[in-house]
Specification:
heterodimer, A: about 120 residues, mainly beta, 6-stranded mixed β-sheet, B: about 120 residues, 7-stranded mixed β-sheet, 4-stranded antiparallel β-sheet, about 0% helix
């Protein structure tokens, strides 16, 4: 049972344009969402997060949007840069306040930024 | 400060053998989680340890086990290896169980190949 789904295994975007990565979840108990970025031969690194009390969180070129009614979140990268080429994982969890909840990850989307 | 250290980085084993992977968390972090990454499946949660106790377990067969020591270092063991166990095994540490505001800090992983 894949509770967090990233339906696009890969995405190719021109440098300077906007990259939009999508993620859907099925568990309505999830209330905290994160995006991780992973380069080959390295572990995932935290990128940006959002709690369910918000619908948008922005950090520089990265913005995460959350649509709770649709159980959908997206990561926008603008403008896209060659260094953004990596695999992006969406993750979800229940109640950061309560803690002790594992992160559930999606399958990942490989983003390639073309010069 | 030192990051999460996983050893070994690469490992080749034969079907039927057993393997032990090691993870040293960031100094001061007491929680360690293990994930398996395979193409198409993303990061699958294996287990989480805190204060030498397993607090969470994923949907993996009993051949997968782990433990945590008093210094917070953790090991995971896979017995009777199968070809399908070939994967990148990632360890993540956090101060306490759960992900914290910035999520886990991951190690670079151990690439296990079963032949």
């Amino acid at each position: 049972d894949q509770q967090v789904k990233q339906n696009s295994p890969s995405l190719s975007v021109q440098e300077g344009r906007i990259s939009i990565l999508n993620c859907d979840y099925t568990n309505s108990m999830f209330d905290y969402f994160l995006w991780y970025k992973k380069y080959p031969a390295e572990g995932p690194t935290f990128l940006i997060s959002i709690s369910s009390i918000k619908d948008k969180n922005e950090d520089g070129r990265f913005t995460v949007f959350l649509n709770k009614s649709a159980k959908h979140l997206s990561l926008h990268i603008v403008p896209s840069q060659p260094g953004d080429s990596a695999v992006y994982f969406c993750a979800a969890s229940r109640s950061i306040i309560q803690g002790a909840q594992k992160l559930v990850f999606g399958q990942g989307t490989r983003l390639t930024i073309n010069p | 400060k030192a990051g999460v250290t996983q050893t070994p980085r690469y490992l080749i084993k034969t079907r039927g053998q057993q393997v032990t992977l090691s993870c040293s968390p960031i100094s001061g972090h007491r929680s360690v989680s293990w994930y398996q990454q395979t193409p198409g499946q993303g990061l699958q949660f294996l287990f989480e340890y805190f204060s030498e106790t397993q607090r969470n377990k994923g949907n993996f067969p009993g051949r997968f086990s782990g433990r945590q020591f008093s210094n917070s270092r953790s090991e995971m063991n896979v017995s009777t290896l199968e070809l399908g166990d070939s994967a990148l095994y990632l360890c993540a540490s956090s101060l306490t169980p759960g992900q914290g505001n910035n999520g886990y800090t991951f190690g670079s992983g151990t690439r296990l190949t079963v032949v």
